[in-house]
TrEMBL record:
InterPro entries: DegV, DegV_C, DegV_domain_contain
GO molecular function per UniProt: lipid binding
PROSITE patterns for the chain: DEGV
Alphabetical UniProt keywords: Lipid-binding
Protein's UniProt name: DegV family protein
Amino acid sequence: MSNVKIIADSTCDLSPELLETYDINIIPLMISMGDITKKDGIDVTTDEIYRWSDETGQTPKTAAPTIGDAVAFIEPFVKEGLDIIFFGISEAMSATCNVLRLAAQNLDYDRLFVVDSKNLSTGIGLQVIRAAEMAKKGHTAEEIIKDNEEIKDKIRASFVVDTLTFLHRGGRCSGLTTLLANTLKLKPEIVVVDGKMDVGKKYRGNIKSVLLKYVQDRKEQLLAADPQRVFITHSGCDESVIKEIKDFIEGLNRFKEILITRAGGVISSHCGPNTLGVLYISN
């Protein structure tokens, strides 16, 4: 039985099956739709978010968990006297990591280690699963954190958005850029660099051909990636597109695991439907 408990926030976009397999517990971020606030992944689905957004022309506001929720979340593990490692969404994007630090202070507990993933979505998920595997093998919290320091900057997280409307509504993208991109039918690649979102390549065309091109453009990097696993994470894409992308990656004969996950409420709120990314660790 490991003395290390791995926890994360809901933006890591791991499926219920993966959370169960690796014994990972999740604290939800908050999603405000007008004057109603809901918990990500518990009270609201991504499809409900899209519907509300289209009806109102607004994007939900997202926020860190409350201190009260964070205290209640870690308290059972504190009572067991476990070493707790929390992986949170990039501190450049959210106050979630700090809320967990404050929760540990409230409980006067000094064995909660907060890791700023400097990432989002399954860019966090890659770190979380790796840590959970090490915990199962009996590694100490310090060993797991040292390993994460070594691989954190090698996480490659990027995705292509079908429309900039959601990023714009959420204040993540200037109006002019949105107008131009949507008029020109541009589909930009968003890349996570040092914990922040940046624009990479700009694609043009229908979303299916764009997503295939985006993955094909990553062929050399994928062939040089850590072979353990790769994520295909999407915010509600056509099954046939996901299958083609999976087939392409399978054809590289590189990865032991190709994991497909659907992005949760927070990530989907900011990027909108038909977004897809391929996320992996570079060697």
